[in-house]
Amino acid sequence: MKKASNTRRRELTDLTMRLVSGAASLIGIFFLVWILWTVAKNGLAAFNYDFFTALPTPPGIEGGGLANAIVGTLLITAMAALIGVPLGLFTGVYLAEFGKNTRFGGMVRFTINITMGIPSIIVGLFVYTLLVLPFKHFSAYAGAVSLAIIMLPVVARTTEDMLGLVPNALRESALAIGMPRWRAIVSILFRSARSGLLTGILLAVARVSGETAPLLFTAMNSPYWMKGLAEPTANLTVTIFNYAMSPFDDWKTLAWGASLLIMVTVLGVNLFARTLLREKTR
Amino acid sequence: MSETKLPLYGDLADPTPKISVRGLDFFYGNHQALYANDLDIAPNRVTAVIGPSGCGKSTHLRVYNRIFELYRDQQAKGEVLLNGESIFAPSVKLLELRRRIGMIFQKPTPFPMSVYENVAYGIRLHYTVAKSELDGRVEEALKGAALWEEVRDLLNRPGTALSGGQQQRLCIARAIAVEPEVLLMDEPTSAIDPIATAKIEELVEGLKGRYTLVIVTHNMQQAARISDFTAFFFKGYIIEFGETKQIFTNPKNKKTEEYITGRFG
Ligand SMILES: Nc1ncnc2c1ncn2[C@@H]1O[C@H](COP(=O)(O)OP(=O)(O)OP(=O)(O)O)[C@@H](O)[C@H]1O
Ligand SMILES: [Mg+2]
User: Which of A60, A143, B142, B252 could pair with A76 in a Cys bridge, judged by C-beta atoms 3.0 to 4.6 Å apart?
Assistant: First the structure.
């Protein structure tokens, strides 16, 4: 008798859990689709030839685009990758290959984990005091450095994880034919883990290409083509921030366009990275 | 464990051993895995290393090419001489030592590159050769590993695309391509099928005479078939060493007899 009621209660709990978690996922998906839909609908309205080729115009003047911001974002992200990826890769190599059970390695790993959790606005502020205040102007390189700081721990972690997946037997057989340690790492281990490493790099790039706060204090923004790396540089995310807050309808449309462009790029990079990883695990 | 002094192979055959091990102890952190190992490896012969699982066979072999040094917590004490010279001497160049003492692992481990590159990599690493000469050397190594006929048209395929037995022979080709003096094989056939195993045994037969071979195996028939000398390991000690014929027909130690007749292991 008692047993029966117990079973009944368990079945009821089970059903409730299912309904609650099902509803939660539905709500999550609903908002996600809503965001995607809104950005796509409003953003598409901004896409035209001018959007990709022209400079922004002052409010009220027809036309204008975000060509300078597109170029600026590409450039700042590329520079950030140029700094952040090698540093991250080598940090990951150190953690996986040399500092595995050392006290220093543990310290590095701990620091990397902490850095990964630092809010990006704080990274922006830090670079602002380091590279903007002393020189008294915003610059593309200050923007790149702050994005690189955000990329470094992400790349380092994936590098460590991916090298950790390479079997010791492969490491040993490289050394066993008389390969120096560094060559075994670069030409055997990197090659063995290449799709994983590339995935990590791509995800890090995708991650920073949507960052706004660190650029707000560093690269700032500009309505013109950039004149040099030491100048304030237009970029998509800060443009979204500025234009979306403006009272002008055509600027707001441009902000939607920039949002859509970033969203599509990040989505594309993510999808590409995940197919790479799937191929590897197959 | 064994109190009697072991007869080293020097009492049985050629004078100078290729490798002499004296008083070798080995530690994984605080855990001692080898105790006072003494062993002589005859040049250009096959020495089989047998014994129950976990008795230190792999550990012993991994000292010869100092591959254990990859791990910070592993430590060897004692002496290992290659051609009479200590492998631990400060003057020894580690990379050159590993060129001279090749190693084949239990699981085939082709490099993530083409069949050709798998073999060519080591040659380029140690020798300066023209492209035409390199092709010849790669072919020669693949022939030496009895693999050439099967892969001559697949040289640009990834090494990992070969069958398990072919991969193992590719690893042998990769090892002999750098012209070693000694080949250490740690259960080279335990992960592959019987036909591929037969091929590798045949290969070992062909390799001896040119190389000094040390082969760890759990397969008693294999040890009896292909080796000239046999060392029996037990709980980190080398309990018995002698000519294979003698070990398998007339073992002196009770434990050896029990092991080779399959009463434990
Ligand atoms: N990486 C390691 N760390 C700690 N202990 C180890 C390690 N590798 C081996 N050992 C220990 O050292 C002893 C000898 O191991 P070893 O692998 O040399 O045995 P083996 O004779 O090769 O066995 P098998 O026939 O199973 O390959 C075992 O007790 C094992 O548990
Ligand atoms: Mg073993």
Answer: A143
Interface of A with B in 76-105 (CB under 8 A): 101-102
Tell which residue, A229, A200, A211, has the closest CA to residue A137: A229
Half-sphere exposure of B204 (CA within 13 A, CB side): 29
Residue B106 with chain A: CB contacts under 8 Å = 169
Q: Is the predicted pLDDT of residue B265 greater than 90, yes or no?
A: no
Cβ–ligand 1 distance for B33 under 6 Å, the answer yes
Ligand 1 pocket check for B35: Cβ under 6 Å: no
Q: Predicted ipTM?
A: 0.90
- Write out chain A residues lying below 8 Å of B171, CB-based: 173
pTM of the model: 0.85
Locate B203 and state its tokens. Answer: 């290969």
- CA distances, A166 to each of A96, A97, A158, B229 (Å): 10, 11, 13, 36
pLDDT at B4 over 50: no
Burial (CB count within 10 angstroms: exposed 0-12, middle 13-18, buried 19+), residue B246: middle
Q: Domain extents for chain A? A: 2-44, 51-281
User: Is the model's pLDDT at A64 over the cut of 60?
Assistant: yes
Q: Which residues of B touch A (CB under 8 A)?
A: 65, 67, 70, 72-73, 95-99, 102-103, 105-107, 109, 111-113, 121-122, 125-126, 171, 174-175, 178
B55 lines ligand 1 (CB under 6 A): yes
Query: Is the minimum distance from the CB of B56 to ligand 1 under 6 angstroms?
Result: yes
Residue A105's contacts (CB-CB under 8 Å, 6 or more residues apart) are: A94, A95, A98, A99
SS (H, E, C) chain B: CCCCCCCCHHHCCCCCCCEEEEEEEEEECCEEEEEEEEEEECCCCEEEEECCCCCCHHHHHHHHCCHHHHCCCEEEEEEEEECCEECCCCCCCHHHHHHHEEEECCCCCCCCCEHHHHHHHHHHHHCCCCHHHHHHHHHHHHHHCCCHHHHCCCCCCEHHHCCHHHHHHHHHHHHHCCCCCEEEEECCCCCCCHHHHHHHHHHHHHHECCEEEEEECCCHHHHHHHCCEEEEEECCEEEEEEEHHHHHHCCCCHHHHHHHCCCCC
Q: How far is the CA of B54 from the centre of ligand 1 (A)?
A: 5
* Type of residue found at B86: S
pLDDT number for residue A93: 96
Write down the CATH number for the domain with range A51-281: 1.10.3720.10
Spell out which residues have Cβ within 5 A of ligand 2, the ion. B 58
pLDDT digits (tens, 9 = 90+) for B139-191: 999 999 999 999 999 999 999 999 999 999 999 999 999 999 999 999 999 88
Residue A230 has pLDDT above 50, yes or no: yes
Q: Say if the Cβ atoms of B65 and A183 lie within 8 Å.
A: no
Q: Are B209 and B44 in contact (CB under 8 A)?
A: yes
